[in-house]
Each structure stands twice: as structure tokens, then as C-alpha cells.
């Protein structure tokens, strides 16, 4: 399994801003966390990697073949993508939503075999939603809803998982659970790329970080190397300070109070 | 999926088919209808078999089709207010069909089939082309703009039709009068056969998209992520909805609001899955239009009302109510 981005170039029509990513690989069994300030191109890059946005130049190679030459269903059988924004005007239940992820594997009318139903159950258990299976989405909390959408991506049984700020609206406890779930999934062989704004989560749960700024790659490296002081300062300025996590030994970032500047 | 809801709607649909042919200004007794079996058709038996039954069948088909098209467009645009009528597709079809009725050079028939279906389809295609250009201009076009455009297209089309009535022959005017206000009364079995070549593939094309339309409720990116080719769903619903609507409108005229009320009611009955909503809309839409038509031929008997008047009187206020309440709520139905 591999997803490879080569020589990616993108710009919004009429805009000066340019995304330039020369070579990134998302290998199986690893969690790649994409970080960077607002407007650094994280979501755009993820959409290109998912084959949803066609770059102006460059290639996305999925198992060696151009992702834009494959049908959407063929991509979806092996690659799961959770966008930042999902539709809210639906009253599907959790299990109805999760079932939809089986689409690329089932027929035109979504007929489900026993095996498909077992996969849906398994994914609801993985995301801790088995007791909420028959609850409509409108009656879920923000975190439960996010997990329900993740479950619907997991039922695709993807080998690569691309997640755009999946934990953004979750409380600390659920964020921790979410990232631990990603680690467990990576151990089963999935290649995961996840966009987040939270550098501490990135450092703690990422095998590798992709640090973007202004559409360019600031670092594609281990958390320790990517979160060097000069990178953090370049991206976020002097109003944050770099520490070491007390038990994990990974880098951590804290905001500084007013008037306090890091060197 | 809710098979029990579909079963219930199916039973009501069946009962409507069995009961409504007996309703009308002239009473028909079972003995009259059964006279056909003995091979000697009484005048009232003729009314039953040659007028009432094809009329009921057409109302079932037309109401069902408009409701399915409405439900599919609502899922596609993620808005409960769009339907063939408010999108201007009915208006376009009506103008096209009326061109064939009023301009002698455009009127051809081949057996049961006629140029009227072709011109209705061209009218529907013109409206759909406009919608597609508008919706394609910005990814998340505000649906009120689309509705405004659709209603404006309807107004332009009825204006053009009114204009044509001044150049039309008196003969065509008689046809037009009943047809424009939405009537299912000038009908025989030949007309039902004439429906088939456009109606059947159109409806099948839309029905085939039912599970994919479920994904569109999750947003375009999520649907693409699940492996749904969103653009192909759009195209198929446009083509299928256009074909089926044009076929029906060419026969019954622009009957409004069935495509609005009926899918709304089916969702109110608890259906969330398009695989329930689309067939449910067909069954309930057929029932509603047939019952409205039965009312249309009895309320001020012996004069018969065009059924379009009844659907407009019920559907128009509901449309306005939904429009207003949508402005207040952020979450659509």
C-alpha cells in the first residue's frame, strides 16, 4: 500500500497563493499528521491526495497508478476521506450513515450481505457507537456525530485514511480517544494522514509530521525534527514556547501570556 | 428502508385504483362495467372502461412521476422547495408542448406518438440547461436564486403560451384551455402508450440513482469520498427527471406542487432513505393526484375542474409556508 504525491502545484484561480509540494509519501502503518497555520494549504493538499481536487501540475499515485484515472468507486474501495465539512441536512441514523460507506463494495441499490452488515457493526464498535446505532444524527453531540462520519469512512475498509480536522470540535477527552483510535488503526496496517491545528496532538500521536506554511513544505520529518524551534517560530511567531512533554519526551507547544515573547 | 411504509402506501395506491374509477358525475354500477365481459358494452360501461379507467391510470402515473421527480431534485439540490414546477421544468415542457399544439407546421403524429412529446422534451431541456448553468456557476449557489430563476422561467413560459393563444386556431384553443390549467380528462389508452418511450426510461434513470442520492445529503465531498460520482448522479437525475416530466406534462399540462407536497409528506411519515422516499413519493403522488382529480370531476358536477387548480390551491400556500419557515430555521427539513 502506498499513496504518493509528486510535484503537486495548485493555485486558486486569480490568486497569488501557491501550493507547492514536491514529494510526500503516506506509507501503511503510519500516522502522518499535517500541521501548519491557517491558509497553509493543509485541506487543499488533503483534497488533492484524496483525488477530489485535480492539481494544476503533478501526480497523485495510488499503488503506482494515477488516482485521477481511477473511478471514484475504485478509489473509495481502498481510500477513505473524511472532509472537514459534512452535510447536516439529514436525519439518517448512525447505522444508516455507516452503511453508506459500503457503497463502493455493494450494488447500485445498496443491497447488503451479512458480511457487509458485520463490517458496519465492527466499525461502530471501533468508534464506540454500538449503543447509538439507531439514534438519528440530529440527536447526537458534535463528537458523536464526527465519530459517526468516521465510522462511515471506516466501513469502506480503506487501506489509506485521509482525515481533515476530524477532532476539531471534540473535547479533550474525546480528542485523546480519537487519536488513540487512529494509532490502533495504524497498527492494523492503515496509512493515515490527518490534518489538525493541535501541535501537541500532532507531536504525541504522529509518526511523522508534514509541516506546511504558505503552501510550501516547512518540514516532512519526525515530530522532534519537524518541531524545531525555528520552524515553530517561523509558522506561529514568538508568542508560543516550545517544551518537552513530561512523560512522552515529545515536543509540546504552549501559548505565552501577553508581553512575554520567546527568544 | 421502511418496507412497511411502502406497503401501506402501496395498499392505498391500489385502493385508489380500485375505487376512483367509480366516482364521477354519471354513476356507473358494477353491472355496467361487467357488461364488457359479455361483449356488449353499455353506454355507462363505455364511460367506465374508455374514459374513467384511462383517466385514473394517467393521474396515477402523472402524480407519481411529478412526485418522484420532485423528490429526486430535492435530494440533488439538498432543498425541499425545488420540484419540476418551481424549477421551471414544467413550464418549459408546457411551452414546448404548446408550440406543437398551436403551430400547425410543428404538429406530427406517428401512431400514438406525436411531435408534442418531442417539443415538450426540448422545452424541459432548455429549462434544465439554464438550471445547470446557474447551479454550475458557483458550487454552492443559493437555492433561493435557483428558485427565483425557476419561477421566473415559469412566468416567461406562461407569458409566451398566452402570446401563442392569439395566433392559435380556435381548435387548438379548446385543447389548450383544459390542458394549460392541468387536466387529465382528454385521454385514451393511446395516450398512455404514447407516454412510454420517454416516461419509462426517464423514471428508471431517476429510480436507479436512489441510493446514490442518499450520499448527496452528506455533502458533495463526503459523497465523492464514499466513491459516488456526483456529476454522473446530477446528469442522470437531470436527464431522467426531464424526460419523465416532459412526457407527463405533454399530456396533462403543468400541474404544480404535487412534486412539492408529496415528498414532504413522505419524509414527514418518517422516511429518510431515498430508497424509501422515491418509491413512496410515486405511490403517494399517484394517489394524491387521482383523488384530487376525482374531486375535480365531482365538486361542481356536471362541470369538471382541471385538477391543476386543486393542486395549486393546496400546494401554493404550503410552498409559501415552507419558504417562510425555512428562513427562520437553519436546518432544512
Description:
The complex is a heterodimer of chains A (263) and B (333). By secondary structure, chain A is an alpha/beta fold. Helices cover 31% and strands 25% of the residues of chain A. Chain A has a 6-stranded mixed β-sheet, with helices on both faces. In chain A, strands 2-1-4-5 form a 4-stranded antiparallel β-sheet, covered by helices on one side. In chain A, a hairpin with a 2-residue loop joins strand 4 (57-62) and strand 5 (65-66). The longest helix of chain A has 16 residues, at 172-187. Chain A starts with a strand and ends in an 8-residue tail after the last strand. The mean pLDDT of chain A is 90. Chain B has a two-stranded antiparallel sheet with strand order 1-2. In chain B, helix 3 (43-77) packs across helix 12 and helix 4 packs antiparallel against helix 7. The longest helix of chain B has 35 residues, at 43-77. The two termini of chain B are 18 Å apart. Residues 329-333 of chain B have low confidence and may be disordered. The interface between A and B is medium-sized, with 38 and 24 residues.
Question: Under the CATH scheme, which class of the largest domain in chain A?
Answer: Alpha Beta
Question: What is the number of helices of chain B?
Answer: 14
Helix content class of chain B:
over 70%
What is the overall silhouette of chain B?
globular
Tell me what portion of residues of chain A adopts beta-strand conformation: 25-35%
* CATH level-1 class of chain B: Mainly Alpha
Task: Determine the N-to-C terminus distance of chain A.
Answer: 43 Å
Briefly note the structural class of the backbone of chain A: alpha/beta
Low-confidence parts of chain A: none
In the CATH hierarchy, the third-tier topology of the largest domain in chain A is known as Rossmann fold
Return the domain count of chain A.
2
Count of distinct structural domains of chain B: 1
- Taken from the alpha-carbon principal axes, the silhouette of chain A is globular
CATH architecture of the largest domain in chain A: 3-Layer(aba) Sandwich
- Order the strands across the largest sheet of chain B as they lie in space: 1-2
Q: How large is the count of helical segments of chain A?
A: 9
Largest sheet of chain B: 2 strands, antiparallel
Our Rg estimate of chain A from Cα atoms comes to 19 Å
Looking at the structure, the CATH topology of chain B is ABC transporter involved in vitamin B12 uptake, BtuC
